[in-house]
Design the sequence.
């Protein structure tokens, strides 16, 4: 997410149509599904504090959701589904831990005693501690820092956190990492086994440990946001629950580590892109490009706050990748109209971002900015380099960007071929509708 556009598809986050809840009381199945979207992170994090083991906590939370389906069908949906699920999951964890303790007591010769680092709640993180105690003020954030343990490889840290804490499916995480679903499933499994084998405890990191884990944590929040701002599939453009969750976590990080420039950069990036949320879709659900959006409806207080954070994040030292992305988003936000966008400045920022973060997605967004600054031919040449590179094979925005530039050059047949390729990769319905309309334009259909 860099604030530019890829093939006419906006890269900035926005809003969906909401849950659309009617007046009828939700069924048990609907309530469980809604609670999974909204409460998974809270329930798992709270259960992990009791279980002291991520695998055990996940098992108990899954059991709680299964139990909820039957109980809520018989007794009705409780007033506070999250509290009900947390209580059920924690009780299940306590029962299993007690059973394990009994087994160890009865079979002492068959079980190796635990080492000095146990997986249960310790003095630094008592199971009954109130939320807000310790270094990290929120259980979800505690769990994110725990998953981002230095003993795990960076990609494993991020993937595991997105799966356990954020509740994303393996397919959604695989799309964010541009790998296949089986590859990502194996990666998550290896990370869990590593935690078990290395006896990594679920505990609150000490203050001195936080900076070493910060970049992975910021990456998690960023990926959570990008997954929410354009849902990988489904009928809606945005998953508001993920967008709001990421914003909340970014604000918590800002309170926890106010002197970290990259924390300010991430929060600025999310605020500036989310300021456009209400204008990303027309009333009929049609996706609106950046040039079509009503800028008078953008959230000006959020833009003001984000712009101030950008200035702070860029002050002194070499700016990081989140601060630079926020600076790009700020350039879009400050332009009174799309035609007033300073594409030269944005291109310069992309050059800096490419040196700070060698990502092929950044290179693709730079190619689009280059096309806006120097013309479609220049952008097509850069996209050709990315096609030969191969790392973005299967990434829908590469053919979408290529199609848009070919369309602008009047090369209709080639544009149609690229649009068909993008359509074959897109699963989000608003984006598919957009690509279908563009394909019809270039084919005269």
Sequence:
């Amino acid at each position: 997410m860099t604030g530019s556009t890829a093939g006419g598809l906006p890269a900035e986050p926005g809003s969906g149509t909401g849950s659309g809840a009617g007046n009828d009381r939700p069924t048990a199945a609907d309530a469980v599904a809604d609670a999974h979207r909204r409460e998974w992170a809270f329930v798992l994090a709270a259960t992990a504090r009791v279980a002291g083991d991520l695998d055990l906590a996940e098992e108990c939370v899954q059991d709680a959701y299964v139990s909820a389906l039957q109980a809520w069908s018989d007794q009705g949906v409780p007033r506070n589904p999250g509290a009900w699920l947390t209580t059920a999951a924690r009780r299940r964890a306590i029962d299993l831990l007690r059973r394990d303790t009994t087994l160890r007591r009865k079979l002492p010769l068959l079980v190796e005693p635990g080492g000095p680092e146990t997986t249960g709640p310790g003095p630094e993180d008592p199971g009954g501690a109130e939320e807000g105690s310790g270094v990290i003020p929120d259980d979800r954030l505690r769990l994110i820092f725990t998953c981002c343990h230095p003993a795990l490889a960076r990609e494993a840290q991020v993937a595991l956190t997105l799966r356990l804490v954020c509740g994303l499916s393996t397919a959604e995480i695989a799309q964010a990492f541009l790998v296949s679903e089986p590859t990502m499933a194996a990666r998550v499994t290896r990370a869990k086994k590593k935690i078990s084998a290395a006896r990594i405890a679920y505990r609150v990191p000490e203050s001195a440990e936080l900076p070493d884990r910060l970049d992975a944590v910021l990456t998690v929040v960023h990926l959570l946001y990008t997954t929410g701002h354009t849902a990988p599939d489904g009928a809606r453009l945005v998953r508001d629950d993920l967008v709001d969750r990421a914003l909340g976590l970014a604000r918590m990080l800002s309170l926890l580590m106010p002197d970290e420039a990259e924390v300010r950069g991430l929060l600025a990036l999310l605020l500036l892109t989310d300021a456009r949320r209400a204008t990303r879709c027309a009333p009929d659900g049609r996706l609106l490009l950046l040039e079509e959006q009503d800028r008078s409806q953008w959230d000006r207080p959020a833009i003001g706050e984000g712009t101030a954070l950008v200035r702070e994040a860029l002050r002194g030292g070499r700016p990081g990748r989140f601060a630079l992305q926020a600076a790009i988003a700020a350039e879009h936000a400050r332009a009174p109209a799309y035609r007033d966008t300073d594409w030269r400045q944005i291109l310069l920022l992309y050059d800096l971002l490419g040196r700070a973060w060698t990502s092929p997605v950044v290179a693709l967004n730079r190619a689009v900015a280059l096309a806006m600054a120097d013309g479609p031919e220049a952008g097509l040449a850069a996209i050709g380099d990315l096609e030969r590179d191969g790392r973005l094979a299967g990434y829908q925005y590469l053919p979408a960007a290529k199609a848009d530039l070919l369309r602008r050059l009047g090369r209709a047949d080639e544009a149609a071929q690229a649009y068909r390729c993008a359509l074959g990769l897109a699963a989000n319905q608003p984006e598919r509708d957009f690509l279908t309309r563009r394909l019809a334009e270039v084919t005269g259909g």
The longest strand covers residues 5-6. The longest helix spans residues 81-106. Strands lie at 5-6, 9-10. The two ends are 32 Å apart (CA to CA).
